[in-house]
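Reviewers of the previous submission asked for a worked example of the structure-prediction workflow described in the proposal, so we include one complete record here. The input consisted solely of the amino acid sequence. No template or homolog information was supplied to the procedure at any stage.
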Amino acid sequence: MDTTIINSSDLPFFHCIGKKVMNITNSLGAAAIFFWLAFVNIFRSRQAREIIQQVFYIGAKSSTIVLLVGLFTGMVLGLQLYYTLVKFGSQGVLGSVVALTLIRELGPVLTAIMITARAGSAMTAEIGILRISEQIDALYTMRIDPLRYLISPRIAAAIISFPLLTAFFDLIGILGGYLTGVVLLGVDKGAYFYRIREYVAFIDIRGGFIKSFVFAVLVATICCYQGYFTHLRTDSYGSKSVSLSTTSAVVYSCVTILVSDYVVTSFLM
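From that input alone, the workflow returned the following structure tokens.
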């Protein structure tokens, strides 16, 4: 019987695929452990002050861009949907269509992407600089847990800020749809708000908040993880590794937001 042993070099394609799958699996496992260790420290004492500071930075300072994007998203939706619905003589349901589109889908997704672009990238860069300047190592020497001191407040703040900003995005987006549909295009004001009250149910609002909570966990974990392990990058070092980690954090977060949006939607439908 032929007992020839097949070496990995004989199958370079499968070896490469297997190596990439193993690397991805290891990274996902490390990120999950990273999140869990940081999450359990949220409930330790003397965390409130740091959490409030991060809520201000992640939430309050991101509110302007989120509200601006929400307003014009609602206005564009009102404009586009009006000319679509008028073909079927259904312009009276404009309010409900705008509201459901924002609450179910666009509100959580666009809010998460805006926060990622503004606050997520900054988190990665800040933690990455702390890492390459050995300040995180200094915390270890002082017997201070870096995860508790640096990561836990940011994850807690993201969990608090994402749903709140999503709610503001939805409200200002509905107002934008009102400005376009009612003020500019002449849709009946009473019909606009009546359709919203008639067709928007609690299950729709709940689904939007579930998505925002999931996005908060994913974005905060990815951005903090990329910054925390900047020194382990093999493609660069020093200040360039921080820039690459920041780019990776934003790209991975945006892709993960869209993928997880589909997954969560499939469970909620």
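The chain has a mean pLDDT of 89. We consider this example representative of the routine output the project will generate in years two and three.
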